[in-house]
Amino acid sequence: MATSGFARKERIEQEHCGKSIRCTRCKGLMVLEPGVDALTSTGPAAMLLQRCVQCGEVIDQVILMNRRSQLGNDLSRTHQG
After folding, report:
1. What is the pLDDT of residues 20-79, one digit of tens each?
2. Residue 49 forms beta bridges with which residues?
3. DSSP string computed for 19-71
4. Exposed, middle or buried, 71 (CB in 10 Å: 0-12/13-18/19+)?
5. What count of Cα atoms within 13 Å lies in the side-chain half-sphere of residue 36?
6. 3-state secondary structure of 79
7. Is the whole-model pTM more than 0.70?
8. How far is 8 from 17, CA to CA, in rounded Å?
9. Which residues contact 67 (CB under 8 A, 6 or more apart)?
């Protein structure tokens, strides 16, 4: 049975409605949404992203990996003597 993107989004939000996630930028409410693969533009990817309804901040797995690697680089620079 095929479902529309809207129905899928509604189901995802219902599953996570008990878990209030706050934005690290503005402390607004983060909602989970289906992600879209920007490289192939073939449709929804098999991942969820978080979007702040207040400031628009978007966080997905790629953004998190890049931030972690950048944080690691920043920490290694501070420990060089």
Report:
1. 789 999 999 999 988 876 666 565 566 789 999 999 999 988 888 898 898 877 766 666
2. 33
3. S-EE-TTT--EEEEEEEE-TTT-SSEEEEEEEEETTT--EE-HHHHHHHHHHH
4. exposed
5. 7
6. coil
7. no
8. 14
9. none
